[in-house]
């Protein structure tokens, strides 16, 4: 790969393969920039020094897929400090269609056009940078949790009932029954803890039939979840802080070049602060914004959290009316819950809670939410067999990547995004 070539390899013969980023003819010189996901290298041919057939072969359209064999040569003019002098250039598959937009970015393309041709858009340096960052997020997530003694599990994506009591579900025909695409792995990761697995994590797709066209929502997204047995909200938040810090440190260490490509300057790992829901409501009111206790935190207020408290804030103890039926009531105020959101750079990217682990309390909570406990019988019955206190949370991968990469539309952070209108490619 191009990124594996170094100046120390000067004089060595190498073979690279990738796409033609640009071709320039300057007098007797032909410059070809070849790109793969690890970088760009300059290939230089000179009349009288390079075989005429080789030099002629370099004059091919941009985005042609090419293989080049040549010698590494030090060059002060080349950005990498070296270039390749070719002895063989092969067009591996001559273009038979027009490239729909300019990959170099010299001519901007609309997002919808790029997404319609995502297989081309992925060749953009900026797009590659986003998914390099996502790869680091996933790697760091696994590394931190494995180091903390967690095990990775898998849960179903086809379920019998809503996992969070909502109605915005995608129904599927499941033989003679009705089923749904899972909107969360919540109930199953809890049952894993009840089963004695204690500390588990999962990376999984989730599906929400929200009729939303915002820049912050997808109908299929990726969740990074944990669940901890014999734990409370404090324990789960402690793990959340370690995971988020580990992810941000990983990006800072491994993705400096990607952040530069995306124009992200001064990327740092902030201190994670904590504030209660009621404290936040009071602070927002004092700042002059109309909001009352019991109101959910909207996008407008999430932006205010950043201005009032900083880039990384855990908001705790939300009202029960705003949280899922399985959220544990606070011991000092039953109208509040041992729940929390994590807001990063003005956007909620994580939500979690200590769970109700007593079956009688679960049934009461389901009924208060207007849900039929019989629809959750197998779930509730699991808590009758020795369920420990437990807590957990879920991070939205694309939302976190969106904020780290500094992009304005979550579709940029989904390889092949699905929303209300987009089902292809």
Task: Walk me through what this model shows.
- The protein has helices spanning 52-57, 111-116, 118-121, 125-147, 186-197, 233-254, 256-261, 277-286, 299-309, 359-368, 377-382, 397-405, and strands at 13-26, 29-36, 39-46, 65-74, 82-91, 151-152, 158-159, 171-174, 177-181, 199-207, 220-229, 273-276, 312-316, 329-330, 333-337, 339-344, 347-354, 390-396.
- The protein has an eight-stranded mixed β-sheet. The chain has a five-stranded antiparallel β-sheet with strand order 3-2-1-4-5.
- It contains twelve helices and 18 strands.
- The chain is elongated.
- A hairpin with a 2-residue loop joins strand 2 (29-36) and strand 3 (39-46).
Helix and strand topology:
Blueprint: E1 13-26, E2 29-36, E3 39-46, H1 52-57, E4 65-74, E5 82-91, H2 111-116, H3 118-121, H4 125-147, E6 151-152, E7 158-159, E8 171-174, E9 177-181, H5 186-197, E10 199-207, E11 220-229, H6 233-254, H7 256-261, E12 273-276, H8 277-286, H9 299-309, E13 312-316, E14 329-330, E15 333-337, E16 339-344, E17 347-354, H10 359-368, H11 377-382, E18 390-396, H12 397-405
Helix pairs in contact: 4-6, 4-12
